[in-house]
Each structure stands twice: as structure tokens, then as C-alpha cells.
Amino acid sequence: MSEQPPLDNFLVVDMSDGIAGAYCTKILADGGAEVVTVEPPEGDSLRGWSASGSAANTGTDGALFSHLACSKKSLVVDPDDSDRIELLHRLLDSADAVVWSPESRLASLPAFAPSAIRSAHPHLVVTAITPFGLEGPWSDRAATEFTLQAWSGGIVGLGRGAPDRAPVHVGGRIGEWFAGAYASAATLASLLRGGAGELVDLSMLETEIQGLTYHSVTFQELRDRPFRSERSIFVPGVSQASDGMVALGCATAQQWNDLCVMVGHPEWIEDDKPLEIATRAAQFAPQIYEWIGARTVDGVCEAATTFRIPNAAVGNGANLTDMVHHEERGSFVKNPTHGFSQPGHPYRMSSFELHQPEPAPRLGEHTAAVTAELAAPVRNRDRREAPPAGKPFAGMRVLDMTAFWAGPSCTHILATLGAEVIHVESTTRPDMTRFIAGVPMTDDSWWEKSPIFAGLNTNKKGVTLNIQTERGRELLKELVKTCDVLVENYTPRVLDQIGMDYESVKALRPDIIMVRMPGFGLDGPWRDKAAFAYVIEDASGLTWLTGHPDQDPVEPYSIGDPNAGIHALNGLLIALAHRDRTGEGTLVEASMIEAALNVSAEQVVEFSAYGKMLNRDGNRGPVAAPQNLYQSAGIDEFGRDDCWVAIAVATDTQWVALRGAVGSPDWALDPVLESAEGRRRQHDLVDEKLAQWCRERSADDIVEVLWDAGVPVAKVMQPHRQTELAQLESRKFFAQVDHPVNGVARHTTLPVRFTSTSEQFDMRPAPLLGEHNTEVLAGIGVATDQLEQLENDRVIGRKLAF
Q1: What are the alphabetically sorted keywords of the record (predicted)?
Q2: Residue 38 near residue 88 (C-beta atoms within 8 A)
Q3: Phi/psi at 658 (nearest 5 deg)?
């Protein structure tokens, strides 16, 4: 096993401030990159931050900073010191990449705007993380992670929460963490292409669309109805057992039937009637909750696992480190500075060690050393004037053995950025997203009409192989020999049972990178547990912070899958850097649960470091005060009195702007409200008054008044209305795709723009079932006259064959 981390030849300068940039560069540092964090004299804002306010009382750097800044260096640059500015330019001239966000005080200097950095240092990859992107009509508008969730449609996107209450956002500032993971993948994609630098422009609004909504525009345009328009509490969902909270999920008819038997009521099963799981579950909810409440969390989970019902204990900052699966897999490690618990790496490599965390730097700790190093001639760089033509992954061949959302979201990015991605299904076991369409099975080719499958699989090729047959396995192995990468997210036993574990795959193609995306990992007591997105959210703490404080938490029902996909992509790219250097392939074990633990890290860090439990607080949050949803006047498109706006005041300056915009009423002139601490103490009063002001106005009027004043505000959008946002139109986030069965509809592209690629990504329609059988199989020596026999033997095919 190589002891040299794959990225140790890259120097990355971190000119960001906040979670997104810090998490981006943490991923790069864990891969071995040298990361120099550039801070003003007062330091990064995270140094004094903790969600509970505990960091202010310790006299040391905040625990979250100490986690995110592991293994980095600190260079202090005073924006008013011309010598230090020149030093920063020399550092950038020596670096390979810079990560930038507008919150940094240095970012306000014209010389350090992304375009200016790119112009002065054309060899650099400049990754800019901004709320809306660097260009477009909203590029300079005020926003927070909370208001971006509202604009994205993610607050109401998958029907989260009770219809008689305000909708609820996904807690834990999840959008910042997800954007950071996306930014690191985009940075690596640019770095590894081998040419000169470029500007990488990432929009957090667009990452929230990718992470919190489910191809809603495509669904609306192809099916002429929203994917889901009403909010509801999923039953069983999260409920109280005798010793804690537990979550059960019923996503299929079989799971509902098994639940009925498990709780002792097989008579609830009515095979002769159409099954509406949500309606039936709500009808019997009291009895279900009574059954759960009489048992322990472990007892409920053990029974549910026996019946193959998705389940998990609901994790939080206090109990996550003690869960037996996380303990046995070593999912948490000790912070090297303060000894509190923090998540380990989100993926594991077979051929090399990822960098182990070193203590976070003290403010300016490396200023002298960096200054001395830069006094010498800048190290030589290959300064080509332009990156290679084409997309970053052109020439890469990927065998895509994934299904549902997590795996396909990873390979979708590869396909969009130029890789040849071959999506493998079978006529007897297709990708189950083909069934998410609401199309009657009596329709011709109904399995081709899923908007979800269409959205996740653009630009891919489609092959059917029945790997339950000997001939199907033989063809699969021949196909493996032609591929650079294999990505799969089956349960671990599936490939193991057919002799396609990593060692077997490696024997076929020694330099292959095999990315395995099991829900809970390849070992441990939960190895074979069913892993849907909501189960991952439950078991990682993401659910705990979502919901109203006087109710049980509610599952986000979204982020668990795409978050796993983007972390798997990061692991794949780090492995690719290793192969570029050594020629050696790697097994990348990228479990969904450890990806989720990494983006919910703040809960464990806060509890372990300070003994403080972070809890859900409806639509309030630790950063802004006030922060909430407020009902506006008007009737929504479904005829409901259910229109809302999101407002988040993150600074005292924004409070003054809000106060003036609402007419400076007497209540708002109270001096107590001039500080964030005072506004937080008076949050109930502020909410009451803002609710009254908003209720008399339309959402559009509220946004116009407050946004023009510089206050972060947003309409709570239905996700299928995303195309109405001028910023997305300006950035051409949606592309028209013409599908041979479905017709034309808009599909999402990627939330990042590369200056070396075309203005809009080329988007080909998702493949029909087995569409590319002839082309792909011919490439591995299957003659045309053999195809008919393979179809007769049900090894391949173009139609479902149940």
C-alpha cells in the first residue's frame, strides 16, 4: 500500500470563509494536498464560531474550525498591508488552485476577485463558491443557506412536514456542506485534466437544487403534474420507542405488507384494493406507534431488519459515536488538537492511505515559514496557456452498475463532463427509478417514461445484461476489461455472490478503479441493512435537526442520496490522481452513511467538545436572527392559502436595512434588537411582527422590498417552478433534451461552470432499455448474429421481462 497521498504534489490556497470553502479544502487536504488558509488579522470567522455559542467562552479556536482546518497551514495577510498583498500574489503564483468565497475580507479587494486572480495567475484553477454564481441578474444579491433552500424548492420539494404547519427547511446548514463537497470535486476535475488553470464557477443555489429536489422540472414537463405537491408526515417515519427515537420506512407495497405482519395486523393487507401506502399508514398510525412505543430502539430495528423493512435508530450529537456500527467501523476519530470526536474519512482506499488529520493551525502559525519559502524562486510549473480541448473526463470509460439516486448521481456528473458511461440494467431487474413515473403499466413502453430516470441518466449509454445467468456474467467480465472505472451501489452481497468483488475485478483489469457505494459499508453489523436516503439521514443525524421543536423530527427525504454520490465522486477523483501517478488501480469504498456523517459533523463535534446538544428549531437557525418562514398573502397554484417567504438577517447591517424596509415601526427601534444576541432573545416578538407585515403582502412584493434593501429573502418555491428564476435562465442551468419516447423537456445540467467548456453542457437523452446493446457488445467481440440468441436466452433485451 502506497504511503504517499495522491494529492501531495498540489498546493491549494484557501481564500474562503465559512463552511463550504473550508469543507472543500478539507477534502483536498485529506487527499494529501498542501492547503494554505489565508486569513485576515482577525482570523477566519469559524475560529470564533460554535452553533451553541460555547466557543466564545473557551479562549481557544472553535471546535468546528479545529475539525475543518486539520492539516492546513495558516497565513495572515492584512488587506491594508501592501507587502502582505505582494506576498499573497507570490503564493498564488506558486500554487495550483485557489478556493474563493465572497465572505472573506480579502475577497472585497478588486485585485482578488476571481476574474482578477485568473487574469494575474492564468495557471491557477480558481474555484469560486457563491450563492448564485459569478454572473447573472442575481449574482450580487444577498442570500444565506436558508434563503437558498427556499429559492431552490428544497423546503417543500418532497412534501416534508405537516400540512397544518409551516414547511420546514433541512437543518444543519446542509447546503453549505454539500456545496463544499461539490466544489472539491469540481476543483479536482479541473486539476486532473492536466492543462493550465481555469475559472470554476459554482452556484450554491444550483447545488441545493441538485441535493434537495428530485428532477422536479423534468417531472412536471413530462407528466404535466408536480412530483409531489402536498406536505405530509411520513408514517411510520420517526417515532418514539421506549428508550429513544427510531425510524421505519415503507416505500413499497411489499414493505407495507411486511410492516402489517410485523406489528401483528395482517388483516390490514387488502390485496384486492389499490394500495395507497400513505393513506393506509395514516389510518393505522396510532396502532403502529403504540407497537413501536412498547419496544426498545434495538428491538424495533431487529424486527424490522428481519422483515427487510428500512429502519434505523435516529442519530444525534450525543448517541452517534456510541452506535455499534459506527464503533466497529471506526467511523469517528479523535481531533488531533483537542481530542473531541469528529468523523473520519467519507471513503476508504485499498491501495493507499488518505492523509491522517494533523492539528489545525494557530492563527498565522505558518506566516513566517511561508514568507521564507516564497523568498526563494517560485517552484517551476507547467504553465500552458489553455487546458486541453474537450471535457475533463473525455476518454474515460465507466461501467455504471448503479440504480436509484445515489449511484446514478455520481455517474451522471462523469457523463456530463465527457466520460463514456455505460449504464447496466437487466430486463428482469431494471433500474427502479424507471418505475417512478405514475404511468399505467398498460401504456406502451411505460418503463421508458420515468422523468427521474431521464434526469439522472442523460448522456449515458444503456446496456442490459442478466448477471444471474452464466453468459451474462461472462459478458460482464469482458466488458469490465474495457473500462477504466466501475461504479456500483448494489447491496454488498450482490456482486460478491457472482464473483465480482474487487480482487476478482482487479484480476480482469489490474488498473481499474472500482467505486463501491454500499449503504452502511462493506463490513460491520449493519452491512446488509436496507439503505434508502431517509434511513441514511436518520442514522447520521441529518433527520435530528429537521422539524419543529415540539414535534418528532422529520426526514429530509432527499440529501442522503446525492450527498453520497458527490462524496463517491471525490473518492474516485482522488483514486484517479493516484493512478495517474503510479498506474495502480484502487478499490474506493464510499458508503452512504459515512458521507452523511461527514456533512452532519457539527452535531458530534459540538457535543463531544462542549457537551451541548444541537436540536431542531423549526426554521430558525444559529447563524441568522431573525430567521424564519412567514406566510404571505395570496393563493398558491393548487388553490391553497399556503404561500410563504424566507427571511434571514445574518448581520446587524441587514437588520438596519430590514427595519427601514418595513417602515421603521416603534417595535423595531428597540436598541436591544440592534445586536444579534438581542434579536435572538426577542425572536418570538420579531417573528410576530414580521408575520403581521408579511401576511398583508404578496410574496413578490415582500421579495422586491426586502431584497432591494439588501436583506436575504426568498419565495418558498415549488420545485417544479425553478425555471421561473431569472438567475437559472441566465446561467442556462436547464437544457432542453429530446427523448425518443417522452419528447422534449428541460433537464438540469451541473451547478458549476468551467471556463474551458462550452457555455451550456451538451445533453443527450437517457438511454432506452438496452438501447446500446449492439454497439457496446460488438466492442467486446459479440457478433451481430449472436445478439438474437442472447435475447432468446433472456441475457439481453429491450423490453421488461418479469
Answers
A1: Transferase
A2: yes
A3: -65, -45
The HSE-up count of residue 770 (CA atoms within 13 Å, CB side) is 22
Closest by CA to 168, choosing from 117, 113, 232, 120, is 232
| Identity of the residue numbered 85 | I
- Is 234 in a helix, a strand, or coil? coil
Write down the residue that cell numbers 466501475 correspond to.
486
8 A C-beta contact, residue 498 and residue 473: yes
The helix/strand/coil state of 646 is: strand
Q: How confident is the model at residue 193 (pLDDT cuts 50, 70, 90)?
A: confident
Calculate the CA 360 to chain-centre distance: 25
Residue 556 preceded by cis peptide, ω within 30: no
Q: How far, CA to CA in Å, does 300 sit from each of 125, 288, 767?
A: 50, 11, 41
* 559 DSSP assignment: T
- 541 touches 597 (CB < 8 A): yes
Q: Across-strand partners of 38?
A: 75
How far is it, in rounded angstroms, from Cα 567 to Cα 599? 10
Using DSSP bridges, classify how beta strands 420-425 and 397-401 pair: parallel, antiparallel or unpaired: parallel
pLDDT in tens, 682-700: 999 999 999 999 999 999 9
Closest listed residue to residue 733, CA positions, set 347, 223, 724: 724
Long-range contacts of residues 786-790, Cβ cutoff 8 Å, at least 24 apart: 790/471
Collapsing DSSP to helix, strand or coil, 757 comes out as coil
Beta bridge partners of 129: 202
- AA identity, residue 391: K
Whether pTM > 0.85 for this model: the answer is yes
Name residues whose C-beta falls within 8 Å of residue 436's C-beta, 6 or more positions apart in sequence: 450, 451, 452, 453
Tens digits of residue pLDDT in 738-776: 999 999 999 999 999 998 776 668 899 999 999 999 999
Fold classification of 625-711 (topology level): formyl-coa transferase, domain 3 (3.30.1540)
One-letter amino acid at 67 equals H
